[in-house]
Predict the structure.
Amino acid sequence: MPFGAKMSGDDGSVGTVSAAVRERRAKIAVSVSASAVNMILGVVKVLSGIYTNSLCIITDGVNNFGDVLSNAGAAVGFGVENKAPTRRFPGGFGRVEYIVAFLMAIIIMAVGGGFAYSALDRIFYHPVITFSWVQFGIVAATIAVKIGLAVMFRVAQGRYASDVLRAQTTDSVLDACITTFALLGLFLSRYISFPVDAVIGLVISAVMIASGLKLAVSEFVRLTGGADLKRENGIKKLALSLKGVTDARVRVYDFGTKRAEATVELIYDDDMRQEDKSAAEDRIARTAEKYGIRVAFVRSADGKEQ
């Protein structure tokens, strides 16, 4: 049922609360661990890039420093997303995840823009690159580390549905590809005088900017109250599957991946009994609640489509 992530910790039971705490701790641990690993990878790559004078290796390392910030921001977001609603924030803090993902997108685009500038500069001023098999091997090993991080994020995202974890998975896979192309540029520099590493660095920058822009647009739509089509369509699909329901008008108010409210107006067959209408509404409300969506039903004067 395509409603979205299941909400935890709303019923106040000990078991549910402990599950929510475990989820929060697990997501924070994953993000903090990734932040530490990316810091190490960034230092290793920048030093290797300086030694070989390879721009694509240096920019790849700086990209890891951007990941350090985004992973740390994700940990902060995970720390507050499940906080109980307050009088000032009656919808809870689930939308913090969207803010973190949006900031991650800005960081990705900013780093990509810096890389593009450096790559263009290097194309016009052909610096000498010093190839080293030792540095080549060290940087190649970081690809396996990034793939490991991608697997870790993917496993966590499978257990705890999260746009931030999904973005971190994509970013890790993209980083592994970026490092592969950076190594290709370093290797080709042995045989080609043209600054091929700068060209590859420019391609890397374009990919980073495009992926960052896509993520930024998606999260901006959510932050500005755009339609939650996934959960709206899920509720509508469920409603239309019930006997006697001919149409459903649904509006979902998004308070995060684990919390939402919805207003639903059902259009029934003319001869549908009141108890059957109540049963249909109860079915929709109970099913939606499992996915963290609280439903309020809106009824027209006669229950018929106008």
User: Anything to note?
Assistant: The longest strand covers residues 245-254.
